[in-house]
Each structure stands twice: as C-alpha cells, then as structure tokens.
Amino acid sequence: MYPLIATSLVWKVMLGASLLGAAAGFVGTFAVLRGRSLVGDMLAHAALPGIAAVFILFGTRDFLSLSVGALVSGLLAIVCVAAISRYTRTSEDAALGIVLSTFFGAGIVLLTVLQSNPQGDKAGLSSFLFGEIAGLRSRDIAVISITAVVLLLLVLAMYKELKLLSFDTGFAGAQGWPTFGLDVSIMAAVAVVTIVGLPICGVVLMAAMLITPAAAARYWTNSLGVLLAIAALVGGLSGVGGCLLAAPGLLQAAGFGWLSFGSGTALPPGPLIVLSGAVLLIVSLLFAPERGILARLWSARDFRRRAAQDHLLRAIYELTPAPENSCPWIDTNSLEKYGHWNSTALDAQLRLAVRQRLIDWRETRVRFTPKGYDTAVHLVRAHRLWELYLLEDLDRSPEQVHHDADAIEHLLPAEVLEHLEAQLKLQGKLPAETVGTVPPSPHSIKPNEE
What we know:
Layout: H1 3-6, H2 9-33, H3 39-58, H4 63-87, H5 92-115, H6 118-121, H7 138-157, H8 159-167, H9 169-174, H10 179-217, H11 224-245, H12 248-253, H13 269-287, H14 293-319, E1 330-331, H15 332-339, H16 343-355, E2 359-362, E3 365-368, H17 370-393, H18 398-408, H19 414-426
Antiparallel strand pairs: 1-3, 2-3
C-alpha cells in the first residue's frame, strides 16, 4: 500500500539522520559551552568551495571525496579566522563573518559556473545548500556511524580535560594543561561533524544541528555528563522526527497521517530535521523542571505567596503583646492598618495561613498556632539580625535597613543566621541574653509604619 515502507530507504535515511543528530548534539555541546556556537555555521558555509573544487578536479560526486574537499576548505577557513583575529585588529566574531561570507560567496560562484555546463548541471552539487539525505548510500551511513563512534571515544578519553576547559579555561592553563590543543580538538570535531552532515542538512541548516540540541539540553541539567547525553538524544530524535515528517506514507502507516503536510507531498528532510529540533527546544524552554519558563513562573508565584505570608506572620508577631509565646488574640483591624493591606488581600492571606495551620482566625481576631509562632520567630529573628548587620556595618538609616530586611528575610538559612549572630555578639553589638532568641528591633515599631 505504501511503496516507501516496502524499501529500506526510509529506515536507512532515518538511521543516518539520527546518528548525525546525536553526534552533532554531542560535539556541539562543547562548542556552545566554549562560546563557539557560530563556528559550525562558518565551517558549513566555508565547505562549499571545497565541494565544488573536488568536483572540478576529479569529476566525482562520491560522498567521501566531497567530504574530504569540504574538510580541507573548512580547515583553511579556520586558519584564516585565526590569522585575521590574531594579526589584525579585527575581533573574532567579525573574522568569522568575513570568512563565512567570503568562502560562501566563492562557493556560490563555483556552483554557478558548474551549472552552466552539461556535466556540472548533472552533478547536483546545489543539493548541498539544503541537503539531500535521500541520496545516502550504505557506505555513507557507515561513514557517519564510524564518525559518531570515534568522536564519542575521543570525548570519553578526554572528558576530564574538556570539562575543565569548558568551564574554567584559566585554571586549566594555570595547571599546565594544553588548552590551545584541546580547543583545536573541539573545533576539529565540530568541523568533522559539520562536513559529514552537509549532505543531510546542507550548508544553510547544519549550524542548527550543532547548536539546537545543546541549547535544549541545557535547560534540563547542570551536569556535563547528563547534558551530553540529553543533547545526543535531542539530536537523534530531531533526525528521526524530520525523516518521519518527510515521509507521508510512513506517517500514515503509523497512524500519524495528520502530521503530514499534504497528501503525498515530498518535503526536504533537512529543514524538517531542523524544525523538529526547534520543537524540542521550545518544549525544553517551556517545560524544563528548573529553567523552563513555566517552572520559573510557578517558582516566582510561590515565592511571592511565601513572601506575603512571611510578612503577615511578622506583622502578627510585632502586634502581639508580650509574652508573644502565649499566643494571645489580636484584632484584624489593627493588622490591616499595620500592613497597609486591603480587606480582600488580608482575608486571602489569613485563609491561606489557616489552611497551613499557622494561625487561628475567629471573625475579627487572629492568633498564632504553635507551628505559626515557631515560624514567625525564625522570620522576625532573621529580619532583625539582618537589620542590625546593615545598620552597624553599612551605616544605613533604620528605615533603609527595615526595607532591605523585608526583601532578604525569606532567603536566610539557619547557618547564615548563626554566623550573623556570632559576628554581632563578637563585636558587642548584640546583647548576650538575646543570643538564640529574637533580638530587639533597632527601630521603633508603630502600627502605621511601612
């Protein structure tokens, strides 16, 4: 029913694309961490004149031969970038732009010349601009597989060195490590992956295969090893997804015909692979558990709610007559005036505190529960210790330190409070009898103060 499925072409193409995506994501992670994301883009564009030159000299469209020509042209471009940025006043990013545009322009000129004669017109080299993955042969798949395995082994062998180079180049150099050689090794790996990937994604889109998986993976983890694994997975899934979208028959047979762009429409796999990676990047951007947009919005919302609750508990503590640990009732009207809340906002905060069993609320009266009192003691102690620190050490007015402590009291852990208390006691700025308890406020507490 679907001739495309009856052959091994789609599965061969899918295997090649997934291997390339995994290798590009794996190697591209180091380029992204080193701030060399656009090197892959430069190499892809710089490879075009090498591809055309090989065809002019040898008249072959063999994948391996064209890849060698592209690699030589790419390495020459790297040398040009290094020379321009080192021996002239041109910055590295400007040098990348100059070399990219110059080599790409030369490649377009050579391709135009080739297409003007019958032999060149049959070469099909223009497919390298956007990729022509359907032309992959079994030997090409073997080359991609060997490249991926060799790069994986090299990274594993130099994992410790590459990790330090990616995050602290200065320390690596101070330790006597060959940082220049390691940097060149990363760029060489990027060059190899870029050249091998040209027939699949093409010159225009290959940079996305290097950058997108690493950018997506960065949202999910802080561990380099996990980052590399996720980047390889995202790259592999991008390759598979792009090939599936480019094969309408396969999608329909798998029950996902609604994903195909028109009945029987043949779309180029290269752009679809990049778009699949972009979709995975958007998913990571939105749904990653710590760095994702939704997680950050949720975290910010929780922090605002927690800060508002902390301010409520501190206000109740400061309005509660001594001894506070007896938890007497106080009037909600005075609480509303003290915190400058409106009645709706105050009711919402009180209901939340009741649900968390921090206070008891009876119509116009509130008081602490034992749990609420202990929580309030920690908050007020943190607030006042920070006020004393700012007031004595930074020479600020009581009003300034009060507002500053409002913002920081939610973030001070117990060990920081102990350190602050010890320092203030050592300097004689904290009475000995208040150590371990709530110190007196350095400013007056009035019902209508901010």
